[in-house]
């Protein structure tokens, strides 16, 4: 299990916070186990208030926290947080966390503390010019997010979602990252970033859409390949490269994800669920379900 600390400052963005932790929560839910844990941190006692007035009570103060990745999230009014308590706290935390991440304008505070010297980094693009001028020792780049060794920087709230999806794919495979993206109804686009995998190809996206639209009556992979204008081999090679799994594996996972959702959220019988997920009989579904998730549908429902 990987531990994240999310350091909040007054004026933080609700959107950025949600786009950071909700994909982690979804990954835990889809995996059926706790892959990620996180805690909200602050430098002072008491609740932290977002730019829109939402108050969050931190789990702990930064001074006592440690873990895998510290995500620094000031968002609005970030320059006002650049005093010595913040800089001292960040420099100390660099010795207790494996990775430091600046989200939105968090890059500015990390750079001000000298923690991005010699690193490639980005920031919210409205601040990129002033960031470049203020911190010449940082290799500033106009990217959605940048991963450089043990430093991560991200340009804004939407980019935070992309970043976390990339981290999930890096840690647990692109198939899980794809499932998280589908859960949030996202659309892939040619989003520029550094240090991560590229967006899925247009025809891979089309193939995934065809699979999603035909879960109850699965299409042969050769038909899917033909409909997206590629050979079976070409589609298989590209999906293996981009998603870490071939078309048949991805298709099966999508069908089984539907089955798991129906088991958990409905009162349908296993026989009915099997038909909706494209299986001829409940025993076939049960075997595939147990092989994929390590538990039978009935045991999951009872649990």
Automatic annotation (TrEMBL):
It comes from Ruegeria faecimaris. CDD domains: GATase1_AraC_ArgR_like. Keywords: DNA-binding, Transcription, Transcription regulation. The keyword DNA-binding applies. Residues 205-303 form the HTH araC/xylS-type domain. Pfam families: HTH_18. This is Transcriptional regulator, AraC family with amidase-like domain. InterPro entries: Class_I_gatase-like, Homeodomain-like_sf, HTH_AraC, HTH_AraC-typ_CS, INH-QAR. GO terms for molecular function: DNA-binding transcription factor activity; sequence-specific DNA binding.
């Amino acid at each position: 299990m990987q531990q994240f600390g999310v350091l909040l400052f007054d004026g933080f963005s609700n959107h950025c916070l949600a786009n950071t932790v909700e994909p982690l929560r979804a990954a835990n839910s889809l995996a059926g186990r706790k892959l990620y844990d996180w805690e909200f941190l602050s430098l002072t006692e008491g609740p932290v208030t977002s730019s829109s007035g939402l108050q969050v009570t931190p789990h702990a103060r930064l001074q006592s926290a440690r873990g895998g990745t510290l995500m620094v999230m000031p968002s609005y009014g970030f320059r006002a947080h650049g005093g010595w308590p913040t800089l001292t706290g960040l420099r100390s935390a660099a010795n207790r966390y494996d990775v430091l991440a600046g989200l939105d304008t968090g890059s500015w505070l990390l750079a001000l503390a000298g923690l991005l010297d010699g690193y490639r980094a980005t920031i919210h693009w409205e601040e990129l010019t002033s960031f470049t001028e203020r911190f010449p020792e940082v290799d500033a780049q106009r990217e959605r997010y940048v991963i450089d060794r043990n430093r991560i920087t991200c340009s804004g709230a939407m980019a935070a979602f992309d970043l976390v999806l990339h981290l999930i794919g890096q840690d647990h495979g692109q198939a899980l990252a794809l499932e998280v993206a589908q859960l949030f109804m996202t659309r892939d686009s040619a989003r520029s970033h550094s240090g991560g995998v590229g967006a899925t190809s247009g025809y891979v996206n089309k193939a995934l859409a065809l699979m999603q639209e035909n879960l109850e009556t699965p299409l042969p992979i050769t038909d899917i390949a033909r409909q997206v204008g590629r050979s079976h081999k070409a589609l298989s090679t590209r999906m293996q490269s981009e998603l870490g799994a071939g078309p048949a594996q991805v298709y099966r996972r999508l069908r089984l994800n539907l089955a798991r959702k129906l088991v958990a959220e409905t009162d349908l019988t296993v026989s009915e669920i099997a038909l909706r997920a494209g299986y001829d009989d409940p025993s076939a579904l049960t075997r595939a379900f147990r092989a994929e998730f390590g538990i039978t549908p009935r045991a999951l429902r009872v649990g």
